Amino acid sequence: MFAMQLRQHHQPLEWVELPDPEPGPDEIRIRIGACGVCRTDLHVVDGELANPTLPIIPGHEIVGRIDKLGSNVKSLSVGERVGIPWLGHTCGHCYYCTHGMENLCDHPLFTGFNRHGGYATMTVADARYAFPMGDKGEDKDLAPLLCAGLIGWRCLSKAGDGKKIGLYGFGAAAHIIIQVLRWQGREVYAFTSPGDTEKQAFARSLGAVWVGGSDELPPEPLDAVILFAPVGALVPAGLKAVRKGGKVVCGGIHMSPIPSFSYDTLWEEREIVSVANLTRQDGLDFLKLAPEMGIKVTNTPYALKEANQALDDLRHGRFEGAAVLIP
């Protein structure tokens, strides 16, 4: 198999040829059709997440066909299309796993971080953490749902059922979740980098009722805001944008330092909450509803060898929606 591998932080990924991986008893081998490029991959490359396994093949928005089954795998079949998300394995016996919070497992493994991921032609995954994807839709359009969609979906569960929702950062996750919110009949207020007229126009085209810079306040207080941009300064900005009792949901796995702010910004029962990973039930619920919601992913395809360019374009916001690697 061929892959783009990270050997050292702050270095470009390297094109390597490796032996085809063999699945363990509870694993499956997947021939990859597409892998989304996520901001978390940038955090991995930049060394901003603790305790990675190096060298590592990044990528955790994987869609492909099963090529080989481990001896214990009975629920899936060769040739079936599956999706592999960020959460790649949990211990199953810690407090969190036994209380419906496997996303907070004490001993997890993550795809593209501790387990080799999807910047490759082939990979191996724990069969219990693979989602059946069916045969409708193209691999490249489904791949971003495996993280941008799933994390956005979990953020919505934390945001509550308020009618007016703000989205800070209008990239892969926001452009999917705005479609979910519109399907649910809610109003979306989109915040971009100040002066980013292209992203603002993109948000309007997807149904945002108001768009503006992250340095602006919305025309009326919001019920909740979701921060997809990993910018700590947006936390107090979000608190100022929500009503009394409103929520600020931090959707990223990493964020720059949050500046100090006065207590009155938080007062009146405003809340700040973070989202960590996802549960398998999150995936099952969202992927079941996605076709009904009519989500259309805007993506920019790159060849596998162009992974470094895709990451650089993501870092600098050079495309709308999502980037997807095609082996």
From TrEMBL:
* Limits of the Enoyl reductase (ER) domain: 8-325
Q: Does the keyword Iron-sulfur apply?
A: no
SMART domains xref list: PKS_ER
Q: Provide the GO MF annotations for this entry.
A: alcohol dehydrogenase (NAD+) activity; zinc ion binding
Question: Matching SUPFAM superfamilies, A to Z?
Answer: GroES-like, NAD(P)-binding Rossmann-fold domains
The record's section on CDD domains has: CAD2
Name one cellular component (GO) term. cytoplasm
Regions that span the bilayer: none
Instruction: Write down the InterPro entries for this protein, in alphabetical order.
Output: ADH-like_N (IPR013154), ADH_Zn_CS (IPR002328), ADH_Zn_typ-2 (IPR014187), ER (IPR020843), GroES-like_sf (IPR011032), NAD(P)-bd_dom_sf (IPR036291)
Catalytic activity, EC: 1.1.1.1
Q: Which cofactor does it need?
A: Zn(2+)
PANTHER family hit by this protein: ALCOHOL DEHYDROGENASE 1-RELATED, VACUOLAR PROTEIN SORTING-ASSOCIATED PROTEIN 11
Q: Which NCBIfam families match?
A: adh_fam_2
Protein family according to the UniProt entry: Belongs to the zinc-containing alcohol dehydrogenase family.
Question: Which protein are we looking at?
Answer: alcohol dehydrogenase
- Protein species of origin: Gluconobacter cerinus
